[in-house]
Write a structure and sequence with these properties.
The chain has 648 residues and is mostly beta strands. It has three helices and 41 strands. A hairpin with a 4-residue loop joins strand 37 and strand 38. The longest helix is centred in the middle third of the chain and has 17 residues. The chain starts with a helix and ends with a strand.
């Protein structure tokens, strides 16, 4: 396989994305708009006289009637944190804690509820304050930086029109999506102070935080360009000269238009003056041609240490569908059908752009492509990983699975791709892939699909499933020569894989009956020993309930909480589970507690912690937990409930 295979497929010799200036963009758009100008005429509709008996005046319509101070103490000894994919890359979530105070997103009111762990009445915590959010906004998540006494909330809303200061003849009647970033000082937990609010035009996609910088990734659906079509009512057809006059009027309006009216802006709270989000030469387009001009993907950096500093932003024309971020770079992914050509016509192609974290903003490093399908939930980012050398490793599902092409990836349910950066050419080049000519064996059996995936250190671990659950181990120490080293076949499957230690891996999944075509049964927690990459083992397992039992942790890694204690010899794990009992046709929901003993390689179930009513929960993806010393706090329906960890 030539190392430049995908670079050639992209026709990418010197980088797929190129900077485009406002002047270049405006000239391109105006030229394109003028080429689309059309003027038509149409005849007036004839007036039809009603019959004489109906020619009486209608009565006038009747006029419409008018209608009618507490300071935070020192943090507790051992405190769990948000479950992160990459250490050092913080993720927004519905709950956060500084060791004493708990912050939870209020699902009913859209605000943030603050609770004091030292003020408990029974199992219920005392709420000390509520932090309001912008009207009609959706709260996407929180960041808490205890060392800086900062709480950051990210919300989104839809504005019926731009604020008065930015209203123009093109935007007066259009709706604009906005993201709000609210930064609070929490020195006084009872009365947090809003120190900055930014309203940024765009649609929410993802956020991350690294040290003092908050990163926002937004999708913008742009509109507001001048019209190019005019239809005129006239009794006589327009002459070509008359049409030309009208075309010149449209062309003149296009000339008066500025591209800056078309690009997103941001606003400071209390100030209606729009500020441009992008500087000149901060936009990128494919080969300097803004072909997908109605879609813009932006990468925005905010300095949390300097709330008055303007955001730094870059963007490229195109949409983003999947995302992964390491502590060094962000990778934005979208489907790329142009990659898929006969005879591999049914395989999914993907385009990936790499933007390195660089000072205040981002630095475009290159683009590449890979085959296969990515999940469409919170766990899709776990199909990616960046190694210490900056190589991107990605595991994908191949739904096409055919024997009609000699390339072994076409008949494999799972494809693993390694992309390396070629900085001078700004390419992400495929340097390794499985299967390949050296290792042509398909990964997974015919008809299987990819479930849980986790890549870390020098190995990839992933699960395929149809009737049974093969857990695969792939050696990635040599990025140019990846190879399958181990395979474990057991009943059921794992949706999410969670490292406990370098040698122990938890699998959150389902029980399945291989004799019944893989029919799903109860909920399952597996403990895998991965110390020997040639022989992974399921060393323990726990099963809860029957068919229909489920957990948000099967779809969202933030639903699982873990905390290593006793000198890292024991790990406590908490996650919500809906347990369905087929014998009694009853369902019970609650937070279930588990312990993993590292040396003994054992799982222990300490039971469920339920609150009343323990129902109406199944699709509530926001159930969370926090562990502080020997107490567990269960966040359910906007409230926190406390229990001793070992309570019966």
């Amino acid at each position: 396989m030539p190392s430049s295979l995908f670079a050639q497929a992209l026709d990418d010799k010197q980088g797929l994305l190129k900077p485009i200036s406002f002047e270049q963009l405006e000239q391109q758009l105006k030229t394109e708009l003028k080429s689309r100008i059309i003027v038509n005429d149409y005849r007036p509709m004839p007036t039809i006289q009603p019959p004489s008996v109906m020619a009486q005046a209608s009565p006038e319509p009747r006029a419409a009637q008018a209608r009618p101070s507490m300071r935070a103490r020192a943090s507790a000894g051992q405190v769990s944190s948000t479950n992160l994919q990459e250490q050092g890359v913080d993720e927004a979530d519905m709950v956060k804690t500084d060791g004493r105070y708990l912050y939870g997103a209020n699902q009913q009111g859209g605000g943030i509820r603050v609770f004091d762990t030292q003020a408990i009445s029974g199992s219920t915590l005392k709420q000390i304050t509520t932090i309001g959010m912008p009207a009609n906004s959706q709260l996407h998540g929180l960041y808490l930086i205890p060392s800086k006494k900062q709480l950051v909330a990210v919300t989104s809303s839809y504005q019926s029109m731009r604020p008065m200061g930015m209203r123009s003849r093109y935007h007066a009647y259009m709706g604009v999506g906005q993201i709000q970033v609210l930064i609070f000082n929490t020195s006084n937990a009872v009365k947090p102070q809003l120190i900055r609010q930014l309203d940024i035009e765009g649609g929410f996609f993802q956020t991350r935080r690294i040290n003092n910088r908050l990163y926002l990734f937004l999708n913008h659906y742009l509109s507001g360009m001048p019209g190019t079509y005019k239809s005129i009512e006239t009794k006589q057809p327009l002459t070509e000269a008359q049409k030309e006059v009208e075309k010149q009027k449209i062309s003149a309006a296009i000339d008066q238009w500025s591209v800056k009216e078309f690009l997103p802006n941001y606003f400071e709270k209390g100030n209606k003056e729009a500020k441009p989000l992008f500087k000149n030469n901060s936009l990128y387009a494919v080969n300097q041609k803004a072909e997908a001009v109605y879609q813009l993907s932006s990468l925005i950096s905010l300095d949390l240490d300097n709330p008055s500093q303007a955001p730094e932003a870059i963007a490229y024309f195109g949409n983003v569908g999947n995302f992964y971020m390491s502590d060094k770079a962000a990778y934005l992914v979208s489907p790329y059908d142009a990659l898929v050509k006969v005879p591999i016509s049914s395989m999914q192609g993907n385009l990936v752009h790499k933007f390195a974290v660089s000072g205040k903003s981002f630095n475009y490093r290159g683009s590449g492509a890979f085959f296969g399908t990515l999940n469409w939930n919170e766990l899709s980012s776990f199909q990616f990983d960046e190694d210490q050398r900056g190589n991107l490793r990605v595991v994908t599902y191949n739904m096409a699975q055919t024997n009609k092409h000699p390339d072994p990836i076409t008949r494999s349910p799972v494809i693993l791709t390694v992309l390396a950066e070629a900085p001078k050419a700004k390419q992400l080049v495929t340097v390794g892939r499985l299967p390949n000519a050296k290792y042509p064996q398909a990964i997974g059996k015919p008809g299987e699909r990819l479930y849980g995936a986790r890549l870390f250190n020098n190995y990839a671990y992933f699960v395929t499933f149809r009737n049974t659950d093969p857990l695969y181990v792939v050696d990635l120490r040599d990025p140019r020569d990846p190879k399958v080293t181990g395979e474990l076949v057991i009943p059921g499957f794992s949706d999410y894989l969670h490292p406990v230690t370098p040698n122990l891996l938890l699998g959150v999944g389902k029980v399945a009956d291989a004799q019944a075509g893989g029919a799903q049964q109860g909920w399952k927690l597996s403990l895998f020993d991965i110390s020997n990459p040639n022989r992974p083992q399921e060393v323990d397992k726990l099963e809860l309930g029957g068919s229909g039992s489920n957990s948000p942790a099967n779809r969202n890694h933030h639903a699982i909480t873990s905390l290593a204690i006793n000198n890292n010899t024991l790990t406590r794990v908490a996650l919500p589970v809906m347990v369905s009992d087929p014998n009694t046709a009853t369902i019970k929901n609650g937070l279930h507690r588990f312990e993993v003993t590292h040396a003994q390689r054992k799982l222990k179930h300490l039971g469920g912690f339920s609150v009343n009513p323990a129902k109406d929960w199944y699709w509530d993806e926001n159930d969370r937990s926090i562990l502080i010393d020997n107490t567990v706090y269960y966040f359910h329906n906007g409230n926190f409930y406390a229990s001793a960890w070992a309570a019966k």
